[in-house]
């Protein structure tokens, strides 16, 4: 059985155009993420078809559905000298009925560098059956079935699960119940249960007699209640009728009256306060208006004076301008008078000299001095005129100031008086503004009082008066005193009503109180009718409370005694019922247990149940021992695969170069053990990773050869010796060469450069076919 060629048209990212032809030894090499694992997955799906998933739709290889779709392409396999094209429609397991999906997975495919066997122990059992024709699994199933039928666990104890209906617990409970039945029978004998029933009947008759006498006393009592209740009910009806006239009168009405009077008093007081406030504001307004009038008079006088003052100020300004203009000239003209006098003196002297000397020079000099004297005389007169103008201006200002009552002898003093006048004038204006604002405020308050507050208070007073009048009309009274008298009268009637109802409650029992008087009267009438049947009860029996108490105490004593008897009887019956319930649960069938006579039958059934189960247990254990002996004899036949001179041992010794000499299969534990050259037996878990891989590859080869029998097969290997060092890897490659020489086909997938290097010579010589794996080919 060999793979001749394959083609993967499309599988996820894989896409090959040309088919891949295979020889006996094929190395399919490629880098990581270039499609090696996907190629293996596609080959598995081609070979197994839809059977790459088991009956539960679970893939027999982990993570084989990374690409969910089925690959497009095919695999050509040669088996029994015929070629078959496998893919979506045909699969290998349909051609080779002697192969199962688990055998294919555990023997011919090594995926993800994992050489361990899936479900190893059960796999060995199935291989034993298949290769030897034995039925070890059937024997095991038969042993389990015998124990299941007998209700036993694998260790031979009784089961305690739901399937056996808790058999172990039921057996324990059966033994306990037999003992409890013995105890109950002993108790029945000691307490003489038969006499209890007679005593119970006697007590019941005595109790009935006492109850009859109590009923007669109660009838007499109810006749008394009816008679008294009827009298009280008539009185109640009269009180309710009188209360109707006081329907609208109560404490709430009186309180309302008082509140209205308080409101009227408060409103009247407030009205008076506002009226006084109005008079006070009018007085204030008159004072403010008088003050404003006074201020305005002052301002009127000041305004007329102010006009003249403004003219005076203009005159002062003109005077100051004149003074500023003339004073520098006057200052300069101070030399004109002395110069004039000096010039006149010189002129006189010159004229005297001219008289004496009669010279033209002296005449000219005299004329010059005379001219100078005249010039200086004119200039001096101009200065004198300026001074006169200034003085006239000053006198004019002083006269005007005097007429305006401005005190002061100098212009500066007049200035001060003018400033004082301006300050006074401004003060009067501000004072006028303040008083005008005050007048506006007072006017606003008066308007508010007149138009809003006083009318509102007047309306409120009227409303309060109206309410009081309505209340008077409603209560039909003229004064608070009248209302108080009516309220007190109503309270007296209500107290009487409450007293009557209390007496009625004591006689007839209580009724709901949240109702109007008519409904209360109706309820009491209904209550009284309950006692109407006792109206004609004979008068020869009078109610006696002491006699009733005595009878009730006697009744209570006898009822307690009866209850105690009943409890004893009921307890016994409960115990019988409990025995019946427990026996039914144990035997899983209806059991009768109503009397003492039934207890023996129940005990007998329980004893038979215990003995039957013990006998079944003995038979099951004996059957298991016989089947175990048969199973051991059958398993001894599986040693042809394992053992000292077996194919597995010889191959494993060869590949490990004598480090391990023997491989054995432990039939009890379903496990593989190996013996090293020192004679020490080791569990496979104790082997190194490389040795473990070598062992399980050898086991696969042996199982494969025995399974295929007449032909060799193929191995699809995904880096099976990844854990090996270079030296061991070389030995393992040599082992593969020997396996190929014996007729097997190898498809070795790897990304390791050392694998390619070891096979370099074989590839060159054509002994190994080298195929480079890539996503696109």
Give an overview in words:
- The protein has 777 residues and is an alpha/beta fold.
- It contains 20 helices and 12 strands.
- The strands form 3 sheets. It has a 5-stranded parallel sheet, sandwiched between helices. A 4-stranded antiparallel sheet has the order 2-1-4-5, with helices on one face.
- Strand 4 and strand 5 form a beta hairpin.
- The longest helix has 82 residues.
- The mean pLDDT is 77.
How many whole angstroms does the radius of gyration measure?
72 Å
Q: Round the mean pLDDT to the nearest integer and report it.
A: 77
Q: How does the overall form come out from the CA principal axes?
A: flat
**Strand order in space, largest sheet:** 6-10-11-3-12
Major sheet description: 5 strands, parallel
Structural class: alpha/beta
Number of helices: 20
Distance between the termini: 27 Å
Helical proportion?
A: 55-70%
Uncertain residue ranges: none
The tally of strands reads 12
Our estimate of the beta-strand percent is 5-15%
């Amino acid at each position: 059985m060999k793979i001749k060629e394959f083609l993967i048209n499309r599988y996820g990212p894989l896409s090959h155009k040309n088919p891949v032809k295979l020889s006996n030894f094929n190395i399919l090499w490629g880098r990581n993420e270039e499609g090696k694992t996907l190629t293996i997955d596609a080959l598995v799906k081609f070979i197994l078809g839809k059977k790459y998933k088991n009956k539960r739709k679970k893939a027999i290889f982990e993570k084989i559905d990374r690409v969910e779709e089925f690959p497009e392409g095919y695999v050509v396999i040669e088996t029994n000298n015929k070629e078959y094209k496998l893919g979506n429609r045909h699969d290998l397991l349909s051609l080779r009925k002697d192969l199962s999906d688990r055998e294919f997975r555990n023997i011919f495919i090594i995926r993800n560098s994992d050489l361990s066997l899936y479900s190893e122990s059960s796999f060995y059992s199935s291989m034993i059956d298949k290769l030897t024709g034995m039925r070890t699994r059937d024997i095991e199933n038969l042993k389990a079935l015998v124990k299941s039928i007998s209700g036993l666990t694998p260790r031979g104890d009784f089961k305690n699960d739901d399937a056996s209906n808790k058999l172990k617990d039921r057996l324990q409970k059966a033994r306990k119940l037999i003992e409890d039945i013995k105890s109950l029978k002993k108790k029945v004998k000691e307490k003489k249960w038969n006499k209890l029933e007679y005593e119970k009947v006697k007590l019941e008759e005595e109790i009935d007699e006492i109850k009859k006498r109590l009923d007669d006393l109660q009838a007499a009592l109810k006749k008394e209640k009816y008679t008294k209740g009827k009298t009280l009910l008539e009185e109640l009806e009269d009180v309710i009728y009188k209360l109707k006239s006081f329907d609208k009168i109560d404490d709430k009405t009186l309180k309302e009256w008082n509140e209205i009077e308080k409101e009227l008093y408060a409103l009247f007081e407030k009205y008076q306060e506002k009226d006084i406030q109005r008079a006070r504001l009018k007085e204030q307004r008159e004072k403010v208006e008088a003050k404003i009038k006074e201020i305005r008079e002052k301002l009127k006088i000041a305004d007329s004076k102010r006009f003249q003052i403004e003219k005076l100020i203009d005159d002062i300004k003109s005077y100051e301008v004149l003074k500023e203009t003339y004073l520098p000239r006057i200052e300069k003209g101070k030399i004109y008078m002395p110069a004039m006098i000096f010039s006149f003196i010189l002129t006189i002297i010159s004229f005297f000299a001219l008289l004496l000397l009669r010279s033209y020079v002296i005449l000219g000099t005299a004329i010059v001095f005379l001219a100078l004297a005249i010039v200086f005389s004119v200039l001096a007169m101009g200065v004198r005129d300026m001074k006169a103008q200034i003085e006239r201006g000053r006198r004019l200002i002083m006269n005007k100031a005097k007429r305006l009552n401005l005190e002061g002898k100098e212009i500066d003093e007049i200035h001060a008086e003018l400033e004082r006048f301006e300050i006074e004038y401004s003060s009067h204006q501000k004072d006028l503004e303040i008083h005008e604002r005050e007048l506006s405020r007072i006017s606003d308050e008066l308007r508010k009082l007149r138009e809003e507050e006083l009318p509102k208070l007047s309306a409120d007073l009227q409303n309060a008066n109206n309410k009081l009048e309505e209340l008077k009309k409603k209560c039909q009274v003229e004064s608070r005193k009248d209302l108080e008298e009516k309220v007190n009268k109503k309270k007296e009637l209500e107290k009487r009503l409450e007293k009557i109802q209390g007496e009625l409650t004591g006689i007839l029992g209580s009724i709901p109180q949240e109702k109007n008087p008519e409904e209360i009267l109706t309820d009491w009438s209904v209550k009284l009718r309950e006692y109407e049947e006792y109206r004609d009860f004979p008068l020869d029996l009078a109610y006696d409370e002491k006699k009733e108490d005595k009878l009730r105490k006697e009744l209570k004593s006898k009822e307690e005694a009866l209850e105690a008897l009943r409890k004893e009887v009921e307890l016994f019956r409960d115990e019988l019922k409990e025995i019946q319930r427990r026996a039914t649960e144990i035997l899983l069938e209806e059991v009768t247990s109503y009397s003492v006579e039934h207890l023996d039958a129940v005990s007998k059934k329980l004893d038979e149940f215990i003995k039957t189960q013990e006998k079944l247990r003995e038979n099951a254990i004996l059957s298991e021992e016989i089947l175990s002996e048969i199973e051991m004899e059958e398993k001894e036949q599986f040693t042809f695969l394992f053992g000292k001179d077996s194919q597995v041992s010889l191959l494993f010794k060869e590949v490990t170069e004598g480090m391990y000499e023997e491989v054995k299969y432990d039939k009890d534990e379903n496990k593989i053990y190996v013996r090293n050259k020192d004679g020490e037996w080791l569990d496979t878990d104790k082997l190194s990773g490389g040795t473990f891989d070598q062992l399980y590859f050898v086991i696969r080869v042996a199982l494969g050869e025995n399974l295929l029998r007449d032909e060799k097969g193929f191995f699809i290997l995904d880096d099976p010796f990844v854990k090996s060092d270079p030296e061991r890897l070389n030995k393992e490659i040599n082992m593969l060469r020997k396996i190929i020489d014996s007729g097997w086909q190898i498809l070795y997938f790897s990304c390791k450069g050392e694998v390619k290097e070891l096979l370099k010579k074989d590839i060159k010589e054509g002994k190994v076919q080298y195929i480079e794996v890539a996503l696109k080919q």
